[in-house]
Amino acid sequence: MHNALALVAAANLDHGITQGFLAALCGGFVSFSLGLIGGGGSILAVPLILYVVGLHNPHLAIGTAALAVAANAFINIIPHARAGHVRWKAAFAFAASGVIGAAVGSTLGKLVDGQRLLTCFAGLMCFVAILMLRPRAATQSSSLLDQGGYPRLCGTGLGAGSLSGFFGIGGGFLVVPGLMFAGRMQIVEAIGTSLFAVGSFGLTTAINYSLSGDVDWSIAAEFVAGGIAGGWLGARMACRLARRRGALNLIFAAMIIAIAANMLYHAWRVHRG
């Protein structure tokens, strides 16, 4: 009996170590994405936590991912701020309205079946990717927004925050295009500025999910720990790619489409099973 209990304890310890290592590894990859394109955080984190780390409850994965991505976003904003890519006034205006939307959206999202939520999430990702691939005229720096800029930012922030909360995501893949549209920003500025909103939206969503017990705190901590180096590398690469017109847009869209296809495939398998 004693030997059996010891074997069970050892197996649980090995599983915990393996799961922690996988969470840290996934955190590094997710944080690299955040630093590089300002998005893809929860888009990557939710499926990775579900299918790699092994938290099989969609709502638990969403809540844990929201907390981890929020923390990584606030960490990753530091190198972008040092490079002068963060427009702080626009960031505060966008995030302030978006947090309200995230609180409402996350409350509604918890009421929807988890698998259906993931399928709708993948469809939205494909739509945004198509918008990002559309050719656009060069934009001016957002250091001086026009008179209609801040109302546009607040309205777009409210919409992005609502979708972010509903789908349980940091929302970078919504925030970056939103800032480019509403704030007339170059993509590298939108990426740096988006991290403040991503962190704010993710934290709001995580708090809401934690009230229902849908956050695994240890996995979130391991995710954040693994993400520190990844975010630094991503931010450095973003600075280099910003010199190549359209390169970041293409990477951003390609990553979203690839992940959406993977999520739809898993949803199809669950439906067939």
Mean pLDDT, to the nearest integer, reads 77
* Helix-strand pattern: HHHHHHHHHH
Name the shape in a single word.
Answer: globular
Helical run tally: 10
- What is the total number of structural domains? 1
User: Can you give the helix content as a percent range?
Assistant: over 70%
Task: Tell me the number of strands.
Answer: 0
Descriptive report:
It is a single chain. The protein is mainly alpha-helical. The protein has one domain. Helix content is 81%, strand content 0%. It has helices at 2-37, 41-53, 58-82, 88-109, 114-133, 149-167, 172-182, 187-210, 217-241, 247-272. Helix 1 (2-37) packs antiparallel against helix 8 (187-210), helix 5 (114-133) runs antiparallel to helix 10 (247-272) and helix 7 packs across helix 8 (187-210). The longest helix is centred in the N-terminal third of the chain and has 36 residues, at 2-37. The protein is globular, with a radius of gyration of 19 Å. The relative contact order is 0.22.
Layout: helices, strands, pairs:
Layout: H1 2-37, H2 41-53, H3 58-82, H4 88-109, H5 114-133, H6 149-167, H7 172-182, H8 187-210, H9 217-241, H10 247-272
